[in-house]
Amino acid sequence: MTFRRVALVVHPTRPIGGALAALNRWAGERGVAVVQLANRGAKQQRLAAAAEVEHGDLVVALGGDGTMLSALRMASPAGVPVLGVACGSLGALSAVTADATAGALERAWNGDWTPRSLPGLAVTA
Q: Is position 65 annotated as part of the catalytic site?
């Protein structure tokens, strides 16, 4: 799957610098635009211009499981795949470590990945 645009969801306080630098290097080498979808929480890390999830070919969640859940909530209605990168301790949903960011992106770029559907629950008031 060739990506034209990767959208980011980032944790506001986790150390995402290494993963972000790897993502930006990888994207720059391939001419892939990187845009920010959202920040989790009140304190924001400003990274790129905001975008709608429908305009992304892949969503990358940099943070932990909570960041991954936020990204999944945004990407699910549009059917956009999400890659979770654990910036800190490895969680249950974020299977890629920060050090493995570029390799995971390259595998996705080459189609060497298997999407995994996760069950969800919709609650309305």
A: yes
